[in-house]
């Protein structure tokens, strides 16, 4: 496989890691704990889209752009909504009543992750599923011009990720809610004293984080397969991306996600190292960068 093709694959994979990393970083910076249920939230969103797909497809069976069915975006929206409902319900029923310290919430989130996964397996089994659409071929003019295989699916993943990331940037920088989130990430107690309704900010954190995690899960299923363990198997890479970017920094999580995703997919370009060492190479990159910058690429808060 050519280096250009590996780079394209890395960009697509990085988009999935970026979406998941942003949500995890938000929960850490505002909620002040490492949410081990975040990976399984991705699977919840992916299965939400799987369930919704046939119903949405029946209302617009032939609508497509460049051969890509438009019903997929409806299924994506439903998957994001399902994940948001699940994480908000978990916040109200589990995390908030506990009123535990960060370690207690971390341990609780492991149990929540196991519960999410068990419920998915009870309902859908442990097998693999795909979205009801053809894989589609490569885009011919890109193949002819650059000699790399790029599908419409790849473009959908990349362009939608860019749209979501730009929308989040606008929310954080140019809205009142964004300023409140940044203030609470910087100093929660001071934000509370200043009159910010911190519970509303925490709710917004769960909504945004859950929606982006679900989008990452749907795109992971679109790129590969949908399984109950899909998010769990990606969780260590997501944590690596957040740590690499700088714990608590949303923009650092974006850069960390891109770096980890690219390292994961570019591994075959390294002589004598096979694809079975993808994750190991990504973690070696993490260690090397942390040796130079212990706080991560953009260690800091949500700004």
Question: In words, what does this structure look like?
Answer:
It is built from twelve helices and two strands; from the N terminus they run ααββαααααααααα. It is mainly α and 303 residues long. It has a two-stranded antiparallel sheet. The N and C termini lie far apart (38 Å). The mean pLDDT is 88.
Could you give a quick summary of the protein structure above?
The protein is an all-alpha fold and 303 residues long. The protein is 74% helix and 1% strand.
* Strands, total number: 2
Element order, helices and strands?
A: HHEEHHHHHHHHHH
- What structural class do the secondary elements suggest? mainly alpha
Distance between the termini: 38 Å
Strand order of the largest sheet: 1-2
The average pLDDT score comes to: 88
Major pleated sheet: 2 strands, antiparallel
Low-confidence blocks of residues: none
Oligomerization state:
single chain
Percent range for β-strand residues = under 5%
Net shape: globular
What would you report as the Rg, rounded to the nearest angstrom? 19 Å
Helix content: over 70%
Number of helices: 12
């Amino acid at each position: 496989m050519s280096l250009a093709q590996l780079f394209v694959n890395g960009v697509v994979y990085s988009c999935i890691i970026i979406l998941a990393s942003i949500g995890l970083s938000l929960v850490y910076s505002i909620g002040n704990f490492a949410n081990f249920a975040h990976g399984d939230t991705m699977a919840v969103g992916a299965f939400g889209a799987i369930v919704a797909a046939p119903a949405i497809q029946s209302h617009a069976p032939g609508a497509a752009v460049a051969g890509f069915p438009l019903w997929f975006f409806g299924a994506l929206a439903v998957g994001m909504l399902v994940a948001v409902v699940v994480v908000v319900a978990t916040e109200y029923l589990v995390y908030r009543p506990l009123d535990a310290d960060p370690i207690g919430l971390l341990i609780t989130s492991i149990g929540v992750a196991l519960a999410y996964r068990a419920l998915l397996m009870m309902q859908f089994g442990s097998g693999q599923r795909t979205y009801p659409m053809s894989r589609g071929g490569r885009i011919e003019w890109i193949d002819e011009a650059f000699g790399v295989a790029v599908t419409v699916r790849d473009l959908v993943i990349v362009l939608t990720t860019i749209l979501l990331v730009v929308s989040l940037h606008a929310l954080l920088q140019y809205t009142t809610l964004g300023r409140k989130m940044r203030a609470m990430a910087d100093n929660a107690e001071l934000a509370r004293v200043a009159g910010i309704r911190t519970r509303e900010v925490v709710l917004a954190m769960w909504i945004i984080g859950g929606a982006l995690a679900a989008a990452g899960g749907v795109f992971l299923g679109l790129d590969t397969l949908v399984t109950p363990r899909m998010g769990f198997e990606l969780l260590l890479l997501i944590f690596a991306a957040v740590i690499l970017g700088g714990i608590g920094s949303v923009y650092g999580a974006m850069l960390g996600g891109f770096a980890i995703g690219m390292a994961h997919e570019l591994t075959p370009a390294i002589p004598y190292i096979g694809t079975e060492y993808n994750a190991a190479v990504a973690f070696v990159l993490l260690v090397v960068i942390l040796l130079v910058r212990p706080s991560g690429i953009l260690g800091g808060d949500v700004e």
